[in-house]
Write a structure and sequence with these properties.
By secondary structure, the chain is an alpha+beta fold. The chain is about 35% helix and about 25% strand. The chain has helices spanning about 30-35, 40-50, 65-75; strands spanning about 1-10, 20-25, 55-60, 60-65.
């Protein structure tokens, strides 16, 4: 599991408040585990036909954990595709 930190504002400015947001990334195997699937092709089909979030990074594939969780909570493959 990877954790990235993004900073907003000017870090060199002592008078500026810095807002930090933790962005948690998961690899493809962890995403597959969350979905209880064993095929990478299934993830691809979910992305193409069911609005599953696209990977943030492509090699190695990494997904935004909150996006995957939100997709699952909003119905997963049972939600209406747009």
């Amino acid at each position: 599991m990877y954790e990235y930190r993004f900073y907003e504002g000017n870090r060199s400015d002592a008078g500026c408040e810095i807002n930090m947001a933790n962005i948690e990334m998961i690899d493809e195997k962890e995403a597959m585990s969350m979905l209880k699937v064993s095929s990478r092709a299934t993830i691809w089909k979910y992305t193409e036909h069911h609005n599953f979030p696209k990977p943030i990074r492509t090699h190695p594939k990494q997904y935004l954990k909150s996006a995957v969780e939100n997709w699952i909570l909003s119905g997963g493959i049972n939600r209406i595709s747009s």
